[in-house]
Design goal:
The complex is a heterodimer. Chain A is built from eight helices and 16 strands. Chain A is an alpha/beta fold. The radius of gyration of chain A is 20 Å and the shape is globular. Classes of the chains: A alpha/beta, B alpha/beta.
Amino acid sequence: MAVLVIADHDGASVRETTHKTVTAASKLGGEVDILVVGQGAKAAADSAAKIAGVRKVLLADSAALGHQLAEAVEATVMGLASGYDAFLSPASNDGKNFMPRLAARLDVAPISDIVEVVSPDTFVRPIYAGNALETIQTSDAKKVITVRPTAFDAAGEGGSASIESVAGADAGKAAFVSEEMVKSDRPELGAAKIVVSGGRALGSAEEFHAVMDPLADKLGAAVGASRAAVDAGYAPNDYQVGQTGKVVAPALYIAIGISGAIQHLAGMKDSKVIVAINKDADAPIFQVADFGWVADYKTAVPELMKALG
Amino acid sequence: MISVGEGPLTPGYVDRPGQAFHSLPPQSGHLMDSAMKVLVPVKRVIDSNVKARVKADQTGVDLANVKMSMNPFDEIAVEEAVRLKEGKEHHAAGTASEIVVVSIGVTQAQETIRTALAMGADRGLLIQSDADLEPLAVAKLLKAVVDEEKPDLVLMGKQSIDGDNNAVGQMLAALLDWPQATFASKIEIAGGKAVVTREVDGGLQTLAATLPAVVTVDLRLNTPRYASLPNIMKAKKKEIAMKAVADYGVDVAPRLKVLKVAEPPKRGAGVKVTDAADLVAKLKTAGVL
């Protein structure tokens, strides 16, 4: 068995989600290679080569791959497909974008968002917004799997895999126009040890940032938001925690003014410690909170800032 | 299990406050080549306000006597198709000329199609199946429908809230060898292209996909309408063609075997705190500060 992990990276280095996907890949048995697709991504390949337990790193580097568009990434992986029995990628938006294409090309059933490898052909994945966990066994010879990073430990460093260049595919029929990325010096939402999340109770974008940003900076935390807060325009889409947004599992999750809709809980209920601050004592968020504080955020957050020193 | 199903139902996908988040300025000036035919696949799923409960024998989720609705993401796709036809928001009137809605599922999925017709779609197609088909089989059936209907655009939800696979749109695009633009929060049709703003890790990305294309929609694209009574009455007269899976000669054999469906580990409620000092002390004891 040979397994190919398609890396999640920013050009300079692979993200921790890649390390976690390597851990899931290693549970399938057999050799694990990593593919880095991008433009000017040599540094990312170098960082991938340092992950322990990796046989080799493949680097497909070309202008056509610059924005990692689904058609080009999928076609690049297809060029390597005969050498591998399984393909794994983090269940990031990028991974979700190209991996099902790959499955269709290979005529196999994609296996999305796994949280456990039971055996090389059997996996556990959440369905119905995490209200159920299904254990599924695939009969396909090749497996195409996306991995929920929060469910796996990160593979360690200390490897020294070789790096090989491989051919990248041409651009597809969709062309990159522009992008508008949220700039932040804070930790990434999916990888942060502490996440502070704000809800619709905050009332406006100005208030959201005025309340959440100083608290996040004090704690070294990432900022998240409920779907309601994002829909209302208080926070950018990238902040959304939930069934269809980001799934997070930090050591500490502080929910401020969030009621706790089913789809929000699906994105954060695996956090180690959950704190809820909400003035509505009946808010469902309190049913999953380790520490619940029935209070108006307007007084509670300044008090918390003070107590943190 | 998260015990949020007790007491009042928690708003899930139905709360639709305010304005969607868009950081791109609205654009105008569309060049219409010709009016498009739009195909919108829709799925009948458990209502988003209902908490799914696992069957005692762990064979699946109990759907008996549970309220079913159109998948919320598909509702957004239907709404956008209707806006393309009506010329609402930034779309030029008549950008879409015909909207065909297709569903694959049990006979009752006709109701789901009827909802889309009441929202403004023109006609429906139900491919009847009592089996819960996997995304690969669904994508193959949709490809067969596209081959027959020849739409310029397939507009569909990015995922269904039951299987949570987020796969069919991408698979359909690959099978058709069409470009894809997933997780759309804004769509503009101009010059034979769909210019789509996508919700991606880290922010927003805009792509230009040459038509025909598959576009899957995200939450912020629009707020679906509620059908008016006259439109509900009108929808009753619209055509829904009935087909069987076998009519398409497509291999829909399952590739996956569900061994077990279980409840996730329960998370119990914790303790209440009454002031910040108490909270900080407890977090320090827990080792997370």
